[in-house]
Amino acid sequence: MSFLRNLLKPSILKSRTPFPFSSSTLYYKTYSTPASVTTYAGLEPTRPDEKPRVVVLGSGWAGCRLIKEIDTKIYDIVCVSPRNHMVFTPLLASTCVGTLEFRSVAEPIGRIQPAISTEPGSYYFLANCSSVDTKDHVVHCEAVTEGAQSMDPWKFKIAYDKLIVASGAEASTFGINGVHEHAIFLREVHHAQEIRVSEEEKRRLLHCVVVGGGPTGVEFSGELSDFIMKDVHQRYAHVKDYIHVTLIEANEILSSFDDRLRHYAVKQLTKSGVHLVHGMVKDVQPDKLILSDDSEVPYGLLVWSTGVGPSPFVKNLELPKVTWWKDWH
Ligand SMILES: Cc1cc2nc3c(=O)[nH]c(=O)nc-3n(C[C@H](O)[C@H](O)[C@H](O)COP(=O)(O)OP(=O)(O)OC[C@H]3O[C@@H](n4cnc5c(N)ncnc54)[C@H](O)[C@@H]3O)c2cc1C
Asked: How many domains is the chain partitioned into structurally?
């Protein structure tokens, strides 16, 4: 179902061409037009032999209810909305936790009013209305563009005989700093998708990565694995298949210990489910590590234990210092 592509981010123009290339109704901007001269694509006023055009701004509860009930023998319908489907908001919360699938709460506009896909004078535009000229009975619109921030949105205008403004309301933030940047508004399907943690994200969040196979790293990995094998498997069985421990070491595990102890540690760690990786970390990002061979290791918890050096305080002390340990290493 092509409308599902738009659930994540409303962006792609509907499969049917939104700009009817009929010479009588269309005048459009060409890219060779000088920047100062702006002409628009769009729909011109209806002629007396055409059905009156009802332009509906928005595809929410109000807009869709109207679109559904309108008599398409009398009117042509043009819907302008950045969303090509209606969201059944009372069930949106259930999709966040997986009780319902996202597609169960979204209905494509073409299914609510089939005339939009079948009648020659009815259209859906994936666009935002930016202003209304009530004097000339025209709405100014900007097409929604996805992933093309540098591209100016395509501007066009649509003449209307009747106009329905059903563009909904804005979430209240009371001007509190940071709400827009850090909070999710539960109003659209893509908000619910952001809230619902994907399988991949679950694995990442429960991936504990330890860097450094010295005594600290080995002991911690072992303890963590014991905790997972015993407590997590017993008490939190629903996440047991997602939680993993990886120990990354550039050389050898417990390199300063003797061979027998090293082999024993490797055997015990492997037995308790620790994934041992021989690799060198070259970059640490907020949710993943990059190894020197460019492979990526996503993580939720990162513990760093790659050895120690002198503290800034000791380094800055104007006292004679031994250097033999450097050669020894
Ligand atoms: C999670 C949740 C649960 C809810 N549960 C209930 C409930 O149980 N019972 C109840 O009565 N109400 C409930 N509501 C409230 C109900 O959804 C709203 O009252 C209703 O959606 C309002 O309808 P509307 O058509 O005015 O706006 P909306 O449904 O918000 O629709 C607005 C439409 O306009 C479009 N639009 C926005 N700007 C523009 C623009 N510039 N140009 C063109 N189009 C534009 C939007 O994309 C959208 O399609 C719930 C709301 C939410 C978020």
From this structure: 2
Contact 116, 109 (CB under 8 A): yes
Nearest protein CA to atom 37 of ligand 1, as residue? 167
Q: What is the rounded distance in angstroms from the CA atom of residue 92 to the CA atom of residue 156? A: 33
Q: 221 and 126 in one domain?
A: no
Atom of ligand 1 nearest to the CA of 130: 41
Domain that holds residue 253: 199-328
* Cα(61) to centroid(ligand 1), Å: 6
- Using most ligand atoms within 8 A of CB, pick from 81, 97, 195 the residue to mutate for ligand 1: 81
80 assigned to some structural domain: yes
Report the distance separating Cα 211 and Cα 304, nearest Å: 5
Same domain for 123 and 236, yes or no, is no
The pLDDT of residue 309: 86
Which ligand 1 atom is nearest residue 141's CA?
A: 42
Could you tell me the pTM of the whole model? 0.71
State whether 105 and 147 are in the same domain.
Answer: yes
- 109-137 pLDDT tens trace: 999 999 999 999 999 999 999 999 999 99
168 CA: nearest ligand 1 atom: 27
Closest CA to 307 of 293, 291, 283, 325: 325
The reply to whether 15 and 124 lie within a common domain is yes
Helix (H) or strand (E) holding 18: none
- What is the rounded average pLDDT for all residues in the chain? 86
Closest C-alpha among 3, 26, 10 to residue 187: 10
Query: Is residue 190 situated within a structural domain?
Result: no
Ligand 1 site residues (CB inside 6 A) read 57-63, 80-83, 89-90, 92-93, 128-129, 166-168, 186-187
250 inside domain: yes
Q: Are residues 26 and 103 in the same domain?
A: yes
Atom of ligand 1 nearest to the CA of 65: 25
